[in-house]
Amino acid sequence: MTRNPVRSPERRRLVGAAAALAALPALPPRIAMAQAGWRPTQNVLYTIPAGPGGALDQSVRMVKAIADRLKLIDRPIVLENKPGGAGRIALAPLDQNPGNPHNLTVITYSLLTNHLLGDLPATFTEYTPLHMLFGEYVTLSVRAESPVKDALDLVERLKRDPAALSLGVATSIGNHIHVGAARPLKAAGVDIRKMTVVPYRSSQESLTNLVGGHLDVMAATTPNILTQLQAGRIRTLAVASKERLQGPLSSIPTWRELGVPADYESAQGVMTAKGVPPEAVVFWDGFFRTVTAEQEWKEFVVSRQWAARSLGAVETVAELTRAYEDTRVVLNDLGLAKR
Fold it and tell me: 218 - beta bridge partners?
């Protein structure tokens, strides 16, 4: 039987370290950084498990821009795009340098799904989560002229014939985009195992196929739909948030508003290698709390329709633990989970 990583000794080590950090006096972020007892003494490598230009890449570059402007560290932050390998390529510097807090990478829920799918040997318990930066929501959209009138019409069509409409996801079947679409559809009564799901290399590619009439429905997180939605080329049917969003998505109902008892929020954060000293975790916590407190960051998050949050190591470990089990349930429902 495969060991459940969220109940492993490594997970207990993470929780214990996080609890120890939580017991430290609450200090303003800058003071916490100054008193941490550790700071970078060499270049910081921050790997991005996606290509340049996408929402994930943009968020990391915004972190670096704010940190550089505020001169938070004396050493350069070097960004490297390392897509592919189900995240293994971006994780390689952390795997090869245990105990070294100069290597950072992005936490996405693909870290959870790829492990459950059997594509990634390790998940968050084999690293040191540092901070959660924001939450993100999955939407379902159709092209403007689609015969699908609204989300409930979509549900009825899929209940009659789950394979009748193609659903596009990026970048792989079973990832957090797929999970975020499948969870409310299952709650609405759709047989999600029989759906026609089409993976694309990027949300931009699935969006192009949707607008071009080669795809019936597109699942994507909020930043990827805003331009075409505002241009009137697509209609967004529902968003998997607990509450209705603001701004350009303020007219889009949540699934719960439509009577479907489901929501789904994935998240993005940052982690480093396993076995790093607690002083380094304290430093990075102050670093990311400083970045996320900046007005520039807050406006950036709002502009992408993300959920504003700033969670330290304790809360990040707890969130990932809950999310791992929730994701396992959906992937089991899809018949995809291998762990």
Answer: 141, 168
Model confidence, pTM: 0.85
Determine the 3-state secondary structure of 176 from DSSP.
helix
DSSP line for 30-81: HHHHHHSS----SPEEEEESS-TTSHHHHHHHHHHHHHHHHT--SSPEEEEE
For the chain, strand residue ranges (E) read 44-48, 77-81, 103-107, 128-143, 166-170, 196-200, 217-221, 234-239, 265-272, 307-311
The confidence score (pLDDT) of residue 4 equals 57
Superfamily of domain 5-135+266-333 in CATH is Bordetella uptake gene, domain 1 (3.40.190.150)
DSSP 175: S
pLDDT of 153-173, one tens digit each?
A: 999 999 999 999 999 998 889
Sorted by where each begins, the domain ranges of the chain are 5-135+266-333, 137-249
Band the pLDDT of 72: cuts 50, 70, 90: very high
User: Mean pLDDT over residues 16-31, rounded?
Assistant: 60
Pairing of strands 77-81, 44-48: parallel
Q: What is the DSSP string of 78-94?
A: EEEE---GGGHHHHHHH
